[in-house]
């Protein structure tokens, strides 16, 4: 079989994908028309031409601009449905979707509009295709800890349908140490946690995340190699690192896929798995992410299988459901 087909058929768990980053150009422009939101792009090609990022910050500007077209419950439903159908086609058996309600509640959209749209689509997609999906409520680190606490309080009515909590947004200048009390509270309430760290922030941020926040998973973590002692500690702890190589190249965290630290991370015994991050904006779903990463880094099929199994094992599924995918 071709590499692409092998990657598609591999049973995969997608653990690091932002629902807002799954908004494809066609749906974005449809929603802009539906909701009469002014956007600076008239065609899909014009919008795609804007997918040239200098860094994380320049990407986040476009990502949040895209979010402005999402207004109604049906919009969140349509976004989630379209993504889960593509993920199913891509051979994703289970996915944990980051979603950041603060973007929308700040614009006066009710939390129930947003969450019920997403959660209904997750339930319906599961019935239609069999894909298993759950929600990770994501706070924006650039908004600070008080707002994260307010987010946590506001989503508690949905707690039984939330698989865990994460944190993304602008990393530089917003180190994990700002969120020690928030993560302690999440753990006190029994929630699973992840945190973006070491995407463009230094290894010191990964160390802070690991030591001060004690997350169940670390998202990205690629700058960890600058601190060999930390590599040994995190490898020994088995803490999963959800790595997104295509994203790292698009956001210029690494110069090219061929220079990506993934092979060194594997050699160091870290628990790494592969993910897409923002498939619409980086123009690469999970199967393509596996295939292009394998091609450019020369990964063999046993290595791809190991990466996929790491993903399944690192999921927040109950043990029996995890086992069924291995
Ligand atoms: N939100 C969406 N994608 C992100 C990324 N790559 N880093 C931080 N926050 C994000
Ligand atoms: Zn991410």
TrEMBL record:
Its EC number is 3.5.4.2. One of its GO terms (biological process) is hypoxanthine salvage. Residues 11-326 form the Adenosine deaminase domain. One of its GO terms (molecular function) is adenine deaminase activity. Substrate binds at residue 278. Signal peptide: none annotated. CDD domains: ADA. It is an enzyme of class 3 (hydrolase). Transmembrane segments: none annotated. Gene3D superfamilies: Metal-dependent hydrolases. The record marks 220 as: Important for catalytic activity. The active site is at residue 199. Its cofactor is Zn(2+). Zn(2+) binds at residues 16, 18, 196, 277. Keywords: Hydrolase, Metal-binding, Nucleotide metabolism, Zinc. GO terms for cellular component: cytosol. It comes from the Bacteria. Binds 1 zinc ion per subunit. It holds the Pfam family A_deaminase. Belongs to the metallo-dependent hydrolases superfamily. Adenosine and AMP deaminases family. Adenine deaminase type 2 subfamily. NCBIfam families: aden_deam (TIGR01430). Catalyzes the hydrolytic deamination of adenine to hypoxanthine. Plays an important role in the purine salvage pathway and in nitrogen catabolism. This is Adenine deaminase. It comes from Streptomyces liangshanensis.
